[in-house]
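One-letter codes give the sequence; the fold follows as tokens. An example follows:
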Amino acid sequence: MNGVDYKNWLDNLQVGDKVAVEHIYGGTTLYRIAHVERITPTKQIKVSGDETKLKDGAQVGNNNSWMHSYYLKPITKEVLEAIEREKLLARISKYNWRELGTEQLREIKKIVED
């Protein structure tokens, strides 16, 4: 989405719309889905407790944007896949692999090595 399309998307947001909140932290990008709760007369968007400037979609008052930033994004297939991926990684990382049998571990090995 180019800058003009993004600006138009922001300009057309309404209370109740679903948006993706992109969270960039130390080089890692995560997403969550949120609802637009409020749009102020000064064009700031309140989304799940985050104040975001409508003109650029960036978090208001964020002085350390290179390290920790929030941005509003449209919900796309890529965003939904990134959210699913993070959920899968979180679930897999908590799994106790020692509970699996040898054959199950062999099958997992095939999957990750292919």
